[in-house]
Amino acid sequence: QVQLVESGGGLVQAGGSLRLSCTLSGRTFSNYAMGWFRQAPGKEREFVAGFAQSFASIRYIDSVKGRFTISRDNAKNTVYLQMNSLKPEDTAVYYCAGRLIYYSTEVFRAEKEYYNWGQGTQVTVSS
């Protein structure tokens, strides 16, 4: 059974940094396309960043470009989201998502394209 477990959320002041981690268990991590989503209060869940299974492609939403970096460590079965220069509008519950796929260069941005989800971790940015 595949499990995704996030960690690293918390409370930070505007301008600060956090690094989120998401560890996958139950399958070979390198065969997964991964993504980070977030859901702010009263809003729909949105794609934030993701990479293709092959890691040949990485995508970010415009509002986080230059501030957030997604990366992975296959040896640790872990995907990271380094978040710098945080803003109050980044406040949300952040979810990691995974999709088992082979030899793919596609970055998936829609919720329905991911089959496995973590439980979410709260990120709160104070002004």
Write up this protein:
Helices cover 0% and strands 50% of the residues. It has strands at residues 3-7, 10-13, 18-25, 32-39, 46-51, 58-60, 68-73, 78-83, 92-100, 116-117, 121-126. Strands 2, 4, 5, 6, 9, 10 and 11 form a seven-stranded mixed sheet that branches. A four-stranded antiparallel sheet has the order 1-3-8-7, with no helix packed on it. 32% of the residues are buried. The mean pLDDT is 96.
In short:
The chain has 127 residues and is mainly beta. Helix content is 0%, strand content 50%.
End-to-end distance:
40 Å
Percent helix among the residues?
Answer: under 10%
Gross geometry: globular
Stretches where pLDDT is under 50 for at least 5 consecutive residues are: none
The helix-strand sequence is: EEEEEEEEEEE
> How many strands appear in the DSSP assignment?
11
Number of helices: 0
Instruction: Indicate the structural class.
Output: mainly beta
Largest sheet: 7 strands, mixed
Mean of the pLDDT scores? 96
Using only C-alpha atoms, the radius of gyration works out to 14 Å
* Percent of sequence in beta strands: over 45%
Tag the structure with descriptive keywords.
single chain; 127 residues; mainly beta; seven-stranded mixed beta sheet; four-stranded antiparallel beta sheet; 11 strands; 50% strand
